Automatic annotation (TrEMBL):
The keyword Nucleotidyltransferase does not apply. Part of the ABC transporter complex PotABCD involved in spermidine/putrescine import. Responsible for energy coupling to the transport system. This is Spermidine/putrescine import ATP-binding protein PotA. Residues 7-238 form the ABC transporter domain. It comes from Sphaerotilus uruguayifluvii. It catalyses: ATP + H2O + polyamine-[polyamine-binding protein]Side 1 = ADP + phosphate + polyamineSide 2 + [polyamine-binding protein]Side 1. The keyword Secreted does not apply. Belongs to the ABC transporter superfamily. Spermidine/putrescine importer (TC 3.A.1.11.1) family. The chain holds residues 1 to 242 of 360 of the full protein.
Length: 242
């Protein structure tokens, strides 16, 4: 029988200092193909949750399943997820094409195959023909698109993003939000997106998980968060975006 959820968190807890839980008891199903945002104020546990999914942090308790199989102890590079973080820098001494090719180079993919896939990934983010530039010759928005192409180049089933547009100015950020949403629609892969920006989450997502104090307060489609917030925190936090 096929598993309906791509990822499941089951009773996941995390403490860094052994005293306070920053993720308290997380049960979360991530659906195949959805655009899910983890939304909440600073310190609410969103990044920790994403880092546990990526494999850079281990849960203190509980289990994470991918396609029904435990991955809690699988190292990050074996999870094969695409990742884009705000400070996930490009290599300045390498061309755009070499930056995008990097995940394939380290996986020892044949050269001809790499060239084809890099060209396709650059086209996806509208940077076709810019492969021989260096990152410093591109704008901030273009650099972020290169990071996105690098995350997509090995066709991962899951793409993890942590405030990827945080360093961009407002106009460019809004433009990139629309591009990301469109890219998600075209690719049909699963996106998990961390943000503290209500407007951003509500614009792009199929579903939003609202975090506060290490707990998911509500996970729902955007309309329902507005219409039937499950508590005062959700009503206040989501309502703040208007
Ligand atoms: P958010 O992404 O919602 O801002 P985080 O998951 O980054 O929240 O942080 C949740 C809590 O865990 C915060 O109190 C933060 O200070 C703490 N924290 C995050 N990373 C570490 C770490 N590596 N070591 C110790 N404490 C951490």
């Amino acid at each position: 029988m096929s598993n309906p959820a791509l990822v499941q968190f089951k009773g996941v807890q995390k403490t860094y200092d052994g005293l306070s839980l920053v993720v308290r008891n997380l049960d979360l199903d991530i659906r195949r193909g959805e655009f899910l945002s983890l939304l909440g104020p600073s310190g609410s546990g969103k990044t920790t949750t994403l880092m546990m999914l990526a494999g850079f942090e281990s849960p203190t308790a509980g289990e994470i399943l991918l396609d029904g199989r435990p991955i809690t102890k699988t190292p990050p590079h074996k999870r094969n997820f695409g990742m884009v973080f705000q400070n996930y820098a490009l290599f300045p001494h390498m061309t755009v094409a070499a930056n995008v090719a990097y995940p394939l180079t380290v996986r020892k993919v044949p050269k001809a195959d790499i060239d084809k896939r890099v060209a396709r990934a650059l086209d996806m983010v509208q940077l076709g023909g810019k492969g021989d530039r260096f990152p410093s010759q591109l704008s901030g928005g273009q650099q972020q698109r290169v990071a996105l192409a690098r995350a997509l180049v090995f066709e991962p089933q899951l793409v993890l993003m942590d405030e990827p547009l945080g360093a961009l100015d407002k106009q460019l950020r809004e433009h990139m939000q629309i591009e990301l949403k469109e890219l998600h629609r075209q690719l049909g892969v699963t996106f998990v997106y961390v943000t503290h920006d209500q407007g951003e989450a509500l614009t792009m997502s199929d579903r939003v998980a609202v975090f506060n104090d290490g707990l998911i307060q509500q996970i729902d489609i955007v309309d329902r968060l507005y219409e039937t917030p499950s508590n005062r925190f959700v009503a206040g936090f989501v309502g703040d975006s208007t």
